[in-house]
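Input for the complex:
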Amino acid sequence: MSVLKPFAILLTLLVFVSPVFAFGDSALSSENVAASAISMAEESVVSAYQTVLEAEAAGANVSDLLARLNVAVEDLAQAHISYRLGDFDGAGRFASLCIDVGEAVKIEAYKLRDLAVEGGRQRFWWTMVGSIIGVGAVVCGSFLGWRVFQRRYFQRVFGMKPEVVSDES
Amino acid sequence: MNLEDYRTLFAATSLTLMLVAAAPTLSLVVPFTRSAELFSELWVLGSNHMAENYPFNVRVGEQYPVFVGVGNHLGVSAYYMVYVKFRNQSQPLPDAQNSIPSPLPPLFEFRFLIMNGESWEAPLTFTFLEASRSENSCLIRRMSINDVVFSVDLSSTWDSENKGFYYQLFLELWLYDATSRSFQFHDRFVGIWLNMTG
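Predicted:
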């Protein structure tokens, strides 16, 4: 009996204390999940943003992509605010929304960037061909023009008759 | 004019025309430096979208709407963040000269992307929910910004010179830097002084 009594007390204590630890673990786990989701959301947004910048640099119109990415970053801001306020479930929810939109924008941005790069390459070649033709036309035109001008100039000079001027003084 | 003069004129005209023909290709190859200054704007407007009617004498339970705006003149689309912070007279402001943000934790934040040459604007409505006053100090316990409630627990002592309990709601502009892959304080902040009257 004397051995059973402390054991019973210990068991009772464990029964009462274990939910506290379990709750603490759960809160910690929830916080970690939210922090991880926010980190992934940030990576998703940044990756999408950098692809949008590449598309923009290639000459694409990125206004639609930026409008969609703005929805994602608003969610990310909400996730950060919720996290700071201790609302880890809310933070995780907003971060997940952000990841979804961010990934979709990134895929669109890649497509747009590739299209813009290809368009830019074609534009460059056509512009270069146009310039080469233009320069060639100027060189040929100038050469022919000069020959024609030269011939007329000599015809005019050789066709002149010497004038005799009398010295009356 | 003799023949040599005509030849020079022809050569000059031809060269000019060649340059004109080659200009579209040259513009794609030669990088032309921008002479324009690259910068961002940050502003706060009053409730009527003008730089007037800012809240000053504030009390518990009333809503105070203002508008926050940012303009992008950086030459490319930019990813910004605005931190909303709240301080009393003794707490530090950012040091824009040395690019040091205020060490105070942010309450609210905005994140957004803006194309070059465009601007962004959003409403910012704040309300003081709980405050207490003693003889020469005032303590703001809770406030809400855009319907999100924050515990602030910030006290202010009576400013006998300006006759009031002064606080400042201020906004810091941060810019995402692709090189460091992080947000950097963009050396701009604006704030509005508030006198807690009741």
